Amino acid sequence: MSPIQAFGPKADNQSPPFSGHNAYRSDPLLKDIAADMSRALRIDFETVGKFVASAEAQDLARIANRSVPELRTHDGSGNRIDQIDFHPSWHALMRRGVASGLQGSVWEGKREEAGFAHQARAIRFFLTAGLECGHLCPLTMTNASIAAIMASPRIEKAWAPLVISRRYDSSHRPAMQKTGVTIGMGMTEKQGGTDVRANQSVATRAGEGVYRLSGHKWFMSAPMSDAFVMLAQTGKGSAEQVSCFLVPRILEDGNLNGLRLQRLKDKLGNRSNASSEVEFSDTFGFLLGGEGEGIRTILDMVTLTRLDCALASAGMMRASLAEAVHHCRHRRVFGELLIDQPLMARVLADLALDTAAATALSMRLARAFDNARDNPSEAAIARLLTPVVKYWVCKIAPSVIYEVMECMGGNGYVEERAVARHYREAPVNAIWEGSGNVMSLDVLRVLTRGRDLCEVALESINRDLGTAGPRTVDVLRACMAVAERDEGAARLLTEQLALASAAAELTRLGAGHVAEAFVETRLGGAWRSTYGMLDARFDARQIIDLLYPPAI
What we know:
The chain is of the alpha+beta class. It has 18 helices and 11 strands. The chain has helices at 3-7, 28-33, 39-52, 55-66, 88-99, 117-129, 136-149, 153-164, 294-330, 342-371, 376-408, 418-431, 436-449, 451-465, 469-485, 490-508, 513-522, 540-547; strands at residues 70-74, 80-85, 183-186, 202-207, 210-221, 227-233, 242-248, 259-264, 275-288, 332-333, 336-337. Helix 9 (294-330) packs antiparallel against helix 12 (418-431). It is globular and about 70 Å long.
């Protein structure tokens, strides 16, 4: 064999590049979820699906994660500027995301999205998460910020049109001079962390609805944003006086608003996005809601970000597993394609069940958000399912993506593949906006303070799950009884609610063999701690081909 033959451009027994397909068209479950939406929306999803699976988009994602943002605190003359430099690839992804409405389409009131606004955005967000999640962080907060801004009609009137605008404007100018803005968040502090009532930042009234803020934030997300939703004390250190503010980054006269970035966090994942520590003094902020209503005000925003955490985790799982299935359909080991070998087929099928369940469950929550205003039952389901879905979907993502990596062997462990990026990214969604314990305690709070909400959810599960409904509801009631007596059992209840709700939604969607396999393996009580535990009763190859149809 000549050197050219041995080391030529053609790689033997390697899968072809995983690009050039359509991520929406190749996802049967997602298409079923969108079946009742307008043709215009489905065409839009196809456009997004084509882009995120293109070689061009994948290069943008790879480069954005390699070219991490850089903080410049001062200019050449020693003036404080607190600017963050991003690679053009980041701006390209942001521009595309804003044009797709990821920063605020649910608030536009478009007729073609009536009744589906949250679900339509959820599908776009899910597809984009399979490409790159770092740039989705500011888009998530921008979209969710409207929920907090609405607490002050005067601020909403001025700021909402700029938030909803589908024009990405990265210029360093006062917000009211721009064509579109992004909004970040500043909640946690060194001494408080999750316990935001322990925050020590203070706000002093300077005028009608205007305050001067002083303090620090241990994590301020997306510090390049045009404004931030922040918490501060408006009463003498009283936890009951935590209030919520919209804090511009640049004042209308062009001067900085006293936000001094100390450093950017060196993070495990989410590398393309900037997260910072910040100190501030004499910083102007607009009160959102009333004094002492900060927790309630910002929780409306947090609820929406929790949905996005689940959607991003589900989107990364779907994209990672799709690449692994693609790899196994082309890779030969011991003379046979990996996809045809029983052990591999069962691992992939087992992963596919959880990934499908995560997708269905996240979209079910988006549907509840769409219907909550006019349907009390859906409002109850949204209240309970938000922490349940956020807990379970985000919790399983790292283990799913790790197993995907193992299916691909060394090819999945290298930085050239998106799987490595997804694996580093996966833990953040379980940590951000409430860790597993916080979500479980929130579920327990619903159980103890609003048992009627739980009963509505149980009725829905019983109805949608079919013949398995009564038995499953009995198990859930037993879990509730245990959790009421023992706070330490809150995770047990949360996970059981997630599994039952996912099984019910897959069944309602008519997922057939997929739903049956999920019910039997996840609700049947069989012992399992890793993937690949399907037995011969379930046709593993059929499950794979149903959820990941071969390319035509």
